[in-house]
Amino acid sequence: MYTHSSSSSSLRFLVLVLISSLISLAQPTLADPYERTPNAQPPSKVAAKVFPPQTYSCNVEGTNCYQRNIACPQECPMLKPASARDKACFIDCNSVSCEATCKNRVPDCTGIGSACYDPRFVGGDGVMFYFHGKTNQTFSLVSDTKFQVNARFIGRRPQGRNRDNTWIQALGFMFGTQTFTLAAKKVAQWDDLVDQLVFTYNNEPLTIEEGHLSTWVASDGQLTVERTSTRNRVLVKLPGITEFYVNVVPVTKEDDRIHNYQIPSDDCFAHLEVQFKFLDLSESVEGVLGQTYRPDFINPVKRGVAMPVMGGEDKFKTSSLLSADCRRCIFSSENSDEETNSLVLDPTMTVDCTSRTSNGYGVVCRR
Question: Cβ distance 59 to 67 under 8 Å?
Fold first, then answer.
C-alpha cells in the first residue's frame, strides 16, 4: 500500500524529470566543426516525417562565429538527412557570414581539395591541375608532420597515346601509428546495387555495414567512417586533422566515347572521387595536393591551357600505399606528436572556375 508521502515524492520526481527533459530539448545542439556530430536516427524511423530546422551553437573560442547560434535553413533542416538524396545542413563556425549552407554530402569535384576524374585536382591555392602519375604506382597526395595520404593509381595506355590514362583506385592514410585504407574493387560491369568499397584498419579487413548513415568508429575515437548513401559513398573523419567525402564510380561508356579511353569489356576501372577539408596543416606540408596549401608555394602549371599538368612523379612516388618514403615526404609515425607551426587555413577561400571556354577546358581556378 502506497502512502501519501511516497505518492507525493513520486509525483515530484516525475515533474523534475519532465522539466529537465524540456530544458535539454531547448538547448541548441553544438556544431563544433572539430567534433563528431550527433548520430541521426535511422532513415526508416524518420522517413516522411517533418522536423523543425536544427539550431547549433558555435562554442570553440577563436572561431569567427564563437557563441553564435546558427539555424539550418528550411531547405535543408537536418545535418544528416534521412534520405541520401536530400541536401544536408553545413555549418562552419569560421565562416564570414555565420550562416548555414545546403549541400549534398558528396565530393564537389570543382571545389578546393578535390581529386576526381583522370586525376584532376583543385589545390589549396584554388588552381586546377592534372597529375597523371603512372599505372599501378602510388604517390603522396599529402605528407605532413601529423599524417600522410597516399593514392594508388590504375589506368591503361590507349593505342596511339604517349601516356597512361589514370584514375585513383585507393587511398592510404597514416596518422600516428595507425593506418587506414579504402579502395574501389576491380569491377567488370558496374552495378549501382553492389557496394564496391573495401576498407582496412591497421592492416586488418574492416567491414562497415551497408546502409545510409551506417557508421564505424575506431576504439580510440581517432577515426570515423560514415556511409553517406546505402553503398559506394562515405565520409571519413580524423578529428582535428581532416575530413573528406569519397565516392566510387566507374568509367562510363559516355566517358569512354568522349575521351577514347579504349576501356576493355572486363574492367570498368572503378575509381574514387574525393574532396578533402583540412583542419590542421603545418607550414612545411608536402605532397601533390598538400604543397598547394603552403603560403610560399608558387604553382608551376600553365594557366589557360586545356590540360594544366603538375609534374613531380619522381618527388612524390612511394613504394606502397602505406609508405612515407617519397623524396619529399615528411611524415614519420615517431615524430607525429611533435608541435609544429600550423597554417591558418582561410575558410573564405573559394574557387572561381569561370572561363570563356566551355566544358571546363582551359579553366583557371583562382583563390
Answer: yes
* Contact assessment for residue 246 and residue 231, using Cβ atoms and an 8 Å cutoff: no
Of 343, 293, 365, nearest in space to 149 by CA = 293
Domain ranges of the chain: 51-104, 105-330
Please list the alpha-helical segments (H only) found in 178-324: 253-259, 313-316
CA distance 277 to 292: 13
**pLDDT over 90, % of the chain:** 69
pLDDT tier at 50 (50, 70, 90 boundaries)? low
Bridge partners of residue 315, in order along the sequence: none
**Torsion of Cα atoms, 303 then 305 then 310 then 311, to 10°:** -120
Q: Angle CA(137)–CA(140)–CA(142) in degrees, nearest 5?
A: 160
pLDDT digits (tens, 9 = 90+) for 164-215: 999 999 999 999 999 999 999 999 999 999 999 999 999 999 999 999 999 9
Q: Give, rounded to a whole angstrom, the gap between the first and last alpha carbons of the chain.
A: 76
E strands, 2-125, where? 29-30, 55-57, 69-71, 88-90, 101-103, 114-116, 120-122
- The answer to whether 245 touches 228, Cβ cutoff 8 Å, is yes
Contact assessment for residue 92 and residue 103, using Cβ atoms and an 8 Å cutoff: no
- Report CA dihedral (278, 84, 170, 182) to the nearest 10 degrees: 90
Q: Do the Cβ atoms of 150 and 138 come closer than 8 Å?
A: yes
- Pair 33, 92: CB distance under 8 Å: yes
Taking the C-alpha atoms of residue 102 and residue 58, their distance in angstroms, rounded to an integer, is: 18
CB atoms within 10 A of CB 210: 14
Q: How far apart are CA 211 and CA 226, in angstroms?
A: 10
Instruction: State the Cα angle at 202 between 196 and 206, rounded to 5°.
Output: 35
Please give the grid coordinates belonging to residue 77: 533542416
Cell of 322: 602505406
Q: Maximum Cα–Cα distance for the chain, whole Å?
A: 94
Query: Cell triple for residue 118?
Result: 583522370
Cell numbers given for 222: 581517432
